[in-house]
Amino acid sequence: MRMNEICDRELHEECGVFGIYGVPEAASLTYYGLHALQHRGQEGAGIVSVDNKGQFRRIKGCGLVTEVFNEEKLASLHGSMAIGHVRYTTAGGGGLENVQPFLFRHNTGDFALAHNGNIVNSDLLHTYLENRGSLFQSTSDSEILAHLIKKETRYHDRPRIYSIIDALNMLEGAFAFLIMTANRIYACRDKYGLRPLSIGRLGEGWVVASETCALDVLGAEFVRDVEPGEIVTIDHQGLRSSDYSKFKRHEMCAMEYIYFARPDSDIEGCNVHAYRKESGRLLFREAPAEADIVVGVPDSSLSAAMGYSEASGLPYEMGLIKNKYIGRTFIQPRQELREKGVRMKLSAVRSIVRGKRVVLVDDSIVRGTTSRRIVAMLKEAGALEVHVRIASPPMIGPCFYGVDTSTYDELISARKNVEEVRRTIGADSLAFLSPESLYKAGNRRELCMACFTGHYPTALYQSMEDANKGNK
What we know:
CATH class of the largest domain: Alpha Beta
CATH architecture of the largest domain: 4-Layer Sandwich
Structural class: alpha+beta
Number of strands: 21
Number of helices: 17
Largest sheet: 7 strands, antiparallel
Radius of gyration: 22 Å
């Protein structure tokens, strides 16, 4: 469940999904939607379209959206219906065979599938399906749903949604699925509500995306979120809703608000920037610091730093600058090259931080390596003191729902207390936000905070045993 080469930034989400129905040149619009979701995955991208004759066409490749597609390729993807996917390699590993959407040929009708999340009972289901003759074309857990849908052979004449309902009820974990047939798109969300999925209106057509920022880039009007345990069918009749589960929770992954989502996205009615800014205000109330300036770590921590600055009255300064043109070249195979990669991607502004006591606001500490390097960078640039404030609690448990922290060995706070972490990263002081403030920041009653509390909303099957063993 881990990428082979760890880059300098400490967390990655698995992917983003996008779908569009009833709009001309659907593939080209999907390209723009995927570009808006690029932050959710940079390892691969793909688009499948369906034309008015029910013919499926697919283009996918490894790399960024702009590297995989060009005008000629997009022009070959005919039709007014398409789904797309951007991927970051976690469960199943990398390689072109794991780049989605997956496309399946079947005597009951072809269909394509794209998935955001992680299936925690995938090993059991994989064995179950292989024992019944399924042949997998990838090592991704996302392919399991397709085989569960196809395994039903007794009821060829019934609508496919019944097979989808049966299949979804066999899955445990986090998921937002888009399933596209020749005539419609099914948008499905896990019953715990761990992964986001939103629906928008675009002219006479419809758009579905992991985040609302992808709706905004097309000028689509947000309609609603897909509810936990719900399947939304999108076709010529409009939207139709079916519940595949009556068990419904709204345990959105807290890291969507803290780190993953774009600040211009709204997740379940709460703007991400507003959430992060409020978390920064709460962080100051819990952990004030004697300092001169507040500096945020670009980009996901800037909103929290603004909130900390406002609440404290300390000036917010751009003491760190991110090089936005480095692309993915910072992923390097040797440690000494990774060390240089941090400086290529992030640099301290000497004239701003020199002689100052700095409050450094970051969204999280995972392994601690990046925090240590940034603290050292600020002190080398002349900062007198660096007081680190983290806009989330200590991360003490692995994530099994699509984030690339699958073992305890990867988490510094799982084996060190706050004072020990402070010494490791070289900060003059260190404080984390409380779990209670994560609820307050978004006025929420439910969130998945398993990585902070160790309380997981789902059964974990083999996952916890693997986490205790260490990296696979």
